[in-house]
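so my prof wants the structure for this chain in the tokens format not the other one, which i didnt know existed until like an hour ago. anyway here's the sequence
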Amino acid sequence: MAAADPEIARLVRAEERLQAETLRLIPSENYVSAAVLAATGTVLTNKYSEGYPGRRYYEGQQNIDPIEELARDRARALFRAEHANVQPYSGSPANLALYLAFAKPGDTVMGMSLPMGGHLTHGWEVSATGRWFRPVSYGVRRETGRVDMDEVRSAALFHRPKLIFCGGTAVPRTVDFAAFASIAEEVGAVLVADISHIAGLVAAGVHPSPVGHADVVSTTTHKTLRGPRGAMILCGAEHAKAVDHAVFPGLQGGPHNHTTAAIAVALREASGEDFRAYARAVVRNAARLADELLARGYDLASGGTDNHLILVDLTGRGVAGKPAAKALDRAGIVVNHNTVPYDTRRPFDPSGIRIGTPALTSRGLTEEHMPQVAAWIDRVVESVRTGNDLVEHQVRAEVAELMAAYPAPGLPVD
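here's what i got, hopefully its the right format
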């Protein structure tokens, strides 16, 4: 790469250093293993494979079909699902395929609103899913920050949606899949559980599984699952044909075979005891970090976390989310600014930050490190309020020193 394109090679090397030296707290980011990283860079990227194993539109699939079959078999076994489709390019296309499979334009669909923690593709107004379908949103209670299932049921009975989405992108609490399933059955809706954020926790048994409750499960394959940037759809045998036809030819062409191979590798890794221990550590680290932030007077959405994700409302600190996130980034702590439930600020300049523990846990950090992480966050947020820029440089040096002692998996950085 250095010879063919030195500019790109320089930027890749710079990103390697950045990922090695910084404390990555964005809950949707993680480090893949060297094996997963290697699979994404194989000659499989040269191969075009429209269709499914045994039913391709191109010849020369002698090696591709077994790779996809391995990925599907491992997904079914890990999540105890009857059917798995591993071809979606990412989480949003996977969800779009489910609209195509189970709804028609103009149908009513229901999902958690984006400002409350939902995802764009759960029927939010700026997404195609909110423009092509009639969206109905639910949120969380102001007092508790948790979903009120009685309110969800009332809304579903009134609006009678064809699809109900549960799960989201900023949900720090356990999703009650059984309660959602009961409501979906009562109104005759298809229930989709989007576990993109918690798939690794579900696979490891540290979060309840939607399989057996939801009609369909969609997920990305990165985040807590520690795979490549791809997606999967899991379902019962009765929905397999509709799901497969919606993915191909309904929504996309040939799969990305190098990604399929990397998904297979990640699923094999996720089936081991080391991964289960990792997932348990993710949850322990998040709980400890939440406790440490609460002890420092921070306001957390829902009062804490059950999983890997913490949503911090900075209103009481006199600092907005965006300047805090940028200051933390300069200090070597990578988070993202995020809306909080009932936020009074604009989405691009919200009141909160979203943090999580998947990546730092992959590096081997434990509960013992969480007081230090919370202290760094507190120092930087306070420096934004007081205008003391020197704190950012001090914290960045301290962060780099700790990161050097805990090398990131898969990174070719000394």
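also thought this was worth mentioning. The chain has two domains: 35-270, 281-404.
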